[in-house]
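Lab meeting prep.
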Amino acid sequence: MTNNYITGAVIKELREKKGLTQEELAEKIFVTSKAVSKWETGRGFPDISLVEGLSKALDISVIELLSGDCIQNKNRACNMTKSKIYVCPVCGNVIFSSGEAVVSCCGIRLPAQEAEASPAGAHQISIEIIEDEYYVSLPHPMTKEHYISFIAAAGADSIQLTKLYPEQNAEARFKIAGVQKIYAYCNKDGLFEVKV
């Protein structure tokens, strides 16, 4: 969808998925069926005061309704190696979700990060075994402008995360048990991963 407001096609699709007629939807949000018809045919838009009620009636979040994207978590088994990672570009907040989710922070919708394979160079994730732990490090600069924000280890049933800050070393230790992937997030270049 190219705009940032609700389209009639989205309203119609969601209404039909719920098995509602235009009249039934109109009744739920206290408008006329004529208003719903106008929205669905593109001859008008719902007033902003109706958005919350419309999202409840259609059983979808306000963010999903406004964006036109319906999110469904396909990771029903909650395998943590299939987690989605969201990072706020404004405040640096890191959110792990066991599957697809609608996540917003600082007033913006966050896309799930797409992990790239760890390349050679500054983003190369090195792993050493020290007793019962993985020692993970990267040769990345850690300046205030460009740094590794976090390193995480994910297994089928858990995630371990170490938050990093500029002027620290880009390193962390994680218990080995169950770990299948290691992630590192660069504040400028995004998410990198390596399977262990």
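Slide two material, second protein:
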Amino acid sequence: MTEITSKIFYVGVNDRNKNLFEGLWPLPNGVSYNSYLVVDEKVCLIDTVEVDFFVPFIQNIREVIGDRPIDYLVINHMEPDHSGSLALIKKYYPDVKMIGNKKTFGMLQGFYGIDSDQMEVKNGDTLSLGTTNLSFVLTPMVHWPETMVTLCKTTDKTVLFSGDAFGCFGALNGGIIDEQINCDTFWLEMVRYYSNIVGKYGTPVQNALKKLAGIQFDYICATHGPVWHTYIDKVVSMYDRMSRYETEPGLVICYGTMYGNTERAAEVIARAASQAGVKNIVMYNVSKTHHSYIIRDVFRYKALIVGAPTYNTGLYHEMDVLLSELAGKDIKNHLIGWFGSYGWASKAVAEIARWNGEKLHFEPVGEPVEIKQSLTPETFAQCEALGRAMAECLKGE
């Protein structure tokens, strides 16, 4: 039994088996599905867990409340990693009243066929559980249309049940609250979680933060990752910066390569940028590193240089996929440079330019470099010039 604070208990589970979150994003350290119980005169369950983990989930609930019924179930988010156990909870607790907003209930019917015992709440509505009071704040498109958060006020604490907001990848290895664990591994995983899952929705995140501004939280209970207590200011600040697309000074160089010629050009660019004063440089082969990590670092750093060969009279496939993924995140306020190579038919440089002009809309820096077959003294110097030009822009920033 894990008591977070008086009357509030953690009943979540860990998933160390899944390889890809949403079938897309790697989980080298697993992921937690967090659920919480508020136990007062009435008992309220906050969110559930993925259905595959229902057995340990129901055991956790029973450990806290024994044979007591659950009176209310708050649904902050309908994505199945949090709502997957709703139908089974309804079988165990047939009289439970499900709390959500108007958009919640259409999804509840669509996913699970549940259309009874519902209590609709609007922004600012409240519910008393005894000495504990809940209030509901609608936060649409963080990152689904039905998302909301729940504020819980006990006699002396204010707790935010934040849904996916302020969450991160990584299973919880024993400790639940941040002060109980070493959080070093979670910070970059929070950036990766935000950039991969929420990143497109910076404006809705900003709107949600404004709704919560001025409230002093004692705990933030997200649906993934640690319960935040000691580090609340840090995690809120991180979400604020990321949702405003603020960056650190640094450069991501990612490239596709078949026989090493494009990779050699990337090395020349990186060396020139380093010699011109850029310290934060990360390099990725787009065919080797999962794009989840590249997207994370594009969110972190101001500058991006991409390069790839022409392939099948178009752009090298993995680079084409990466640019599509980046365009889908609606990232703002970035610098970009590019280069490409070809054997007999030039296409890569033009295709990268088209991606940026039509979809990415990053600020171009330097002159694109086009390499026929392999580096020559002329194209070597052009690669150096591209690296230096990006460094100068970063120093100006």
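Talking points for slide two:
The chain has a mean pLDDT of 96.
DSSP finds twelve helices and 23 strands in the chain.
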